[in-house]
Amino acid sequence: MNWMELGKEVIEGKELNETEALSILESDDDELLSLLQGAFMIRKHYFGKKVKLNKIINTKSGLCPEDCGYCSQSSVSTAPIEKYAMMDKDTIVEGAERAYKQNVRTYCIVASGRGPLNRDLNTVIEAVKEIKSNYNMKICACLGILNDKQAQSLKEAGVERYNHNINTSSDHHSQITNSHTYEDRVATLEKVKTAGISPCSGVIVGMGESRHDIIKMAEALREINADSIPVNFLHAIPGTPLEHLDELNPRYCLKVLALFRYINPTKEIRISGGREVNLRSLQPLGLYAANSIFVGDYLTTDGQETNADNQILEDLGFEIDFLNEPVQV
Questions:
Q1: CA-to-CA distance for 304 and 296, rounded, in angstroms?
Q2: What is the pLDDT of residue 297?
Q3: Is 142 a catalytic residue?
Q4: Rg value, the chain, Cα
Q5: Does the pLDDT value for residue 303 go beyond 90?
Q6: CA atoms within 13 A on the CB side of 210
Q7: 71, 105, 161, 185: which one is catalytic?
Q8: 9 C-beta neighbours (distance < 10 Å), count
Q9: Residues 131, 133, 139, 145: what is their CA dihedral angle, to the nearest 10 degrees?
């Protein structure tokens, strides 16, 4: 496959067929650099050499009734994590101030649970209002399944983006969780879109899915029209049902990132949870396909030091995106 030629066709509007998509995941490792070169051509066309920095604050940990097999906070997990109820408003705002000083411009307010309790939602809303009045930041909320009224309330408070990952393909979903459906997740994304909030939805790779499942995930997110796509790589946590899985290597992870760029050329592709343990020394190469990363810690696992991420960007000759807007070059 001529990856540069395919990249040019994608920029001109081509959508990959199943055979082309599969060829990315099944490509020989010797083709990896040329595959990434094609992905980078697409990425640079829409985003230049800018990288968006995102930071998570886990405002409510554990205590979740859902049975998601990958999650240390779920009802079926025995992982020894810290568990706490909703943080107060001031703590959430203080987290935003620290993130802003680290050049983060998308602050992700996350809470465990099936969906937000009214008092927790009100805490988030009040925190968002204060953050927006003090800092030039984009706010992303991730609070579980929403109804229409909740989505509208978040929009009115100033939330620009809402994250609700599809996590896996519709075919593989029942192998990961049975306490909610794939359709439940898509329905929440449609509610936030109706409310005028930008949809953020991504995946977790390495949960026993097939290559065809990964292609279906990327295509589903294109159909959903998710503006931001976090690509997580399973960090198998002891005490979770998926603790035994170890399917990934750095080269395959890079092919997955390339696939998502070829299928969703104009979207923010974010290297997310598990990048440190799965991409390892090849982390910098991921940014030739992706244009966004999380900095700092994740929900219940440690991330890389922010200084190390800044060094990666400097070494690549990339720059932090402070505007959160694609750049046509």
A1: 6
A2: 74
A3: no
A4: 19
A5: no
A6: 7
A7: 71
A8: 16
A9: 80
Residue 158 pLDDT: 97
Q: What phi and psi, each to the nearest 5 degrees, are found at residue 154?
A: -65, -40
Q: What is the pLDDT of residue 323?
A: 61
Distance CA 325, CA 250 (A): 29
| Residue 87 neighbours by CB under 8 Å, 6+ apart | 57, 59, 60, 123
For residues 24 and 204, give the distance between their C-alpha atoms in angstroms, rounded to a whole number: 18
Angle at 295 between CA 289 and CA 296, to 5 degrees: 150
The pLDDT tens digits of the residues spanning 109-139 come to 999 999 999 999 999 999 999 999 999 999 9
Tokens in use for 316?
A: 């690549």
Give burial (CB, 10 Å; 0-12/13-18/19+) of 58: buried
The Cα angle at residue 35 between residues 249 and 251, in degrees rounded to 5: 5
Nearest to 68 by CA among 77, 60, 79, 59: 77
d(CA 131, CA 105): 12
In single-letter form, the type of residue at position 61 comes to S
State the chain's mean pLDDT as an integer: 94
253 an active-site residue?
A: no
pTM of the model: 0.95
Name the active-site residue from 64, 142, 161, 275.
64
**How many angstroms from the chain centroid is the CA of residue 200?**
7
| Rounded Cα distance, 23 and 263, in Å | 13
Q: Is the pLDDT of residue 81 over 50?
A: yes
Q: Which of 108, 142, 222, 253 is catalytic?
A: 108
Cβ count within 10 A of residue 131 = 23
pLDDT in tens, 29-48: 999 999 999 999 999 999 99
**Of 140, 142, 185, 253, which is the active-site residue?**
140
Give the Å distances, CA to CA, from 85 to 123, 293, 326: 12, 27, 37
Q: What is the pLDDT of residue 329?
A: 38
Q: Is 64 a catalytic residue?
A: yes
